[in-house]
Amino acid sequence: MESGKPSREQLEKYFKESRKYFDDIAKSYMETDREYYDKYIAPFYSSPFGAVSGGAAKKVASVAVLAGALLVVGIGAAVFFISMDSTSDKKVEVVQEESTSVEKDSDFDYKTNYEKGLYFYERENYKSAKKYFKRVGESDSEYKKAQKYLEKIKMIERKNNMGDDGNAKQRKLEKPN
């Protein structure tokens, strides 16, 4: 470096640590030594990264690119999860509808399939009742009763499909003795 003139490293230090002093030096050299100003000082004002030079500029630029990429990925992930959230809400609604129409085994404390079928039959949940009555084995003492209920459910289902007003109506028949 020419005698009496600050080196690039010194200028970088002034730019970072004492911006006012750097601006004063810059103004002085812009008026007195335009060539020195253009070569060493002007790049500090034209660089979007300020006082960075050489390898430091590449590091700052790569950090900026990485930050931009992370921002894009973050926005993409947010959009993905928001869209997934609305899809999962629909799935939850469907599951909730199904769970209200078919009561869970844990909702009652009956031991045999016949008792479970009867439980659902009395609540007019014929689909679940039919499922349990069909599970009653021929060797079971309540097999004949379960078969009678299955017949009654078939009759109810037929009547529901042929209602007077064309609408399906649930009709409960009395318990067989």
What key phrases describe this protein's structure?
177 residues; 7 helices; single chain; mainly alpha
Q: What is the helical fraction, as a range of percent?
A: 55-70%
**What is the number of independent domains?**
3
**Rg from alpha-carbon coordinates:** 42 Å
What oligomeric state is this? single chain
Instruction: Provide a count of the helices.
Output: 7
Structural class: mainly alpha
- What low-confidence regions span 5 or more consecutive residues with pLDDT below 50? 96-103, 164-168
Based on CA inertia axes, which overall geometry fits?
A: rod-shaped
Count of β-strands = 0
Q: How does the major sheet shape up? A: none
Summarize the helix and strand pattern as letters: HHHHHHH
Strand content: under 5%
Spatial gap, N to C terminus: 113 Å
Rounded mean pLDDT is 78
Question: What is the topology?
Answer:
Layout: H1 8-17, H2 19-32, H3 34-46, H4 55-101, H5 113-122, H6 126-135, H7 143-161
Please characterize this protein's 3D structure.
The protein is 69% helix and 0% strand. It has 177 residues and is mostly helical. It has 3 domains: 8-52, no CATH class; 54-101; 102-161, no CATH class. Mean pLDDT is 78; it is low at 96-103 and 164-168.
Task: Give me a quick take on this structure.
This protein is mainly α. The protein is built from 7 helices and no strands.
